[in-house]
């Protein structure tokens, strides 16, 4: 589990993108909750990925 934890941001981005693709091609496209959850997954994944990159950086920010 600890090996997968650094990649949590990327996993959330992939899950959010998959949710958006699924809602596009399914009859569930008129449910905004699925679209919003996909968007939130993508945004939180981006934030987690940027925080991980900043944490591992050796340069001052």
Describe the structure.
This protein has 61 residues and is mostly helical. The chain has helices at residues 8-25, 32-56.
Task: Summarize this structure briefly.
The chain is an all-alpha fold and 61 residues long. Helix content is 70%, strand content 0%. It contains two helices and no strands.
Overall average pLDDT: 87
Parts with pLDDT < 50 across at least 5 consecutive residues: none
The N- and C-terminal alpha carbons lie at a distance of 29 Å
The major beta sheet can be summarized as: none
- The number of helical runs is 2
Q: How would you describe this structure in keywords?
A:
61 residues, mainly alpha, 70% helix, elongated
Helix-strand blueprint:
Elements: H1 8-25, H2 32-56
């Amino acid at each position: 589990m600890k090996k997968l934890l650094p990649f949590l941001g990327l996993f959330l981005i992939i899950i959010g993108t998959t949710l958006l693709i699924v809602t596009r091609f399914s009859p569930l496209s008129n449910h905004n909750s699925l679209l919003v959850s996909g968007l939130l997954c993508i945004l939180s994944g981006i934030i987690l990925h940027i925080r991980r990159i900043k944490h591992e950086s050796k340069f001052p920010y």
